[in-house]
């Protein structure tokens, strides 16, 4: 990765977990780390009073947040190139803008306090829905990826909608020395009456189609990562249920998100909403441009 890994921090436990994850990710890829704190209140902090004297004698809270985050990152990975910045802007807008010059955006799953948790949860959702680069929400506060081995899970979409996510997942598996499990869900068709001349079990065609989609989706990306062991999981039932179950034993769950030019709404489907809110491991949302 040539572009930096960008992580948003606010001093909360969840953002510190995101910071630790981002430090490890940047080190794995040989990338720099950029630590960002964005807040509209920053526009008013540190301004001068009418008498021309500084409003605050002590370091600003944002300075403490960024200073502590930088110190934590350097202690965790001393050789890492680390920069910090306070941005006086709406957090979601600031992070989306940062993502235009980043290899990866990283956030925690919640923020500070009850109200802050709701706010930053909505920020994370907005960033995941609009980011131009891959974005990771670090679920939980104690999940640490294995140093070697482990498992990356790919929620496999159709070939046209999931190729970028597949490449991202394979690359992540490779740098971690992990295996990749590609999960594709399928549903049994409703068949109130089956013709006696039809052969095969009900749903066989749908299951075979799911396997074929996985093969086609991974065919090209696998050529660039021949050392990654790839397994397929073809699961009957809702995709969100299959992925949430797979996340219980995963180091990272990767899903694609279709982006349509000119569409202003939140571009996330029901499956992505479910895993972002409930997965048991960090979730990477990889945009697919159309």
Automatic annotation (TrEMBL):
InterPro entries: Rossmann-like_a/b/a_fold (IPR014729), Universal_stress_UspA (IPR006015), UspA (IPR006016). Coiled coil: none annotated. Transmembrane segments: none annotated. Residues 5-139, 151-287 form the UspA domain. It comes from the Bacteria. Belongs to the universal stress protein A family. This is Universal stress protein.
């Amino acid at each position: 990765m040539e572009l930096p890994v960008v992580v948003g921090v606010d001093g909360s436990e969840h953002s510190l977990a995101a910071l630790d994850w981002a430090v490890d990710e940047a080190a794995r890829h040989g990338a720099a780390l950029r630590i960002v704190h964005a807040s509209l209140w920053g526009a008013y902090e540190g301004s001068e009073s009418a008498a021309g004297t500084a409003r605050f004698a002590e370091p600003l809270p944002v300075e403490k947040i960024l200073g502590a985050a930088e110190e934590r990152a350097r202690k965790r990975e001393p050789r890492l190139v680390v920069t910090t910045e306070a941005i006086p802007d709406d957090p979601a807008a600031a992070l989306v803008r940062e993502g235009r010059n980043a290899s990866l955006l990283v956030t925690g799953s919640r923020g500070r306090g009850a109200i802050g948790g709701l706010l930053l949860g909505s920020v994370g959702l907005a960033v995941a829905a609009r980011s131009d680069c891959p974005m990771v929400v670090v679920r939980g506060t104690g999940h640490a990826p294995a140093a070697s081995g482990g498992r990356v899970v790919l929620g496999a979409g159709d070939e046209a909608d999931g190729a970028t996510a597949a490449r991202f997942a394979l690359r992540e598996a490779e740098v971690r020395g992990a295996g990749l499990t590609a999960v594709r869900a399928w549903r049994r068709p409703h068949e109130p009456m089956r013709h006696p001349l039809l052969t095969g079990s009900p749903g066989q065609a749908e299951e075979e189609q799911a396997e074929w989609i996985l093969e086609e989706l991974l065919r090209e990306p696998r050529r660039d990562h021949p050392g990654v062991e790839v397994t397929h999981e073809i699961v009957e039932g809702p995709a969100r249920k299959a992925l949430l179950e797979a996340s219980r034993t995963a180091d990272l769950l990767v899903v694609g998100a279709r982006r349509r030019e000119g569409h202003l709404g939140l571009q996330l489907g029901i499956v992505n909403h479910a895993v972002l809110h409930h997965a048991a491991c960090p979730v990477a949302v990889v945009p697919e441009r159309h």
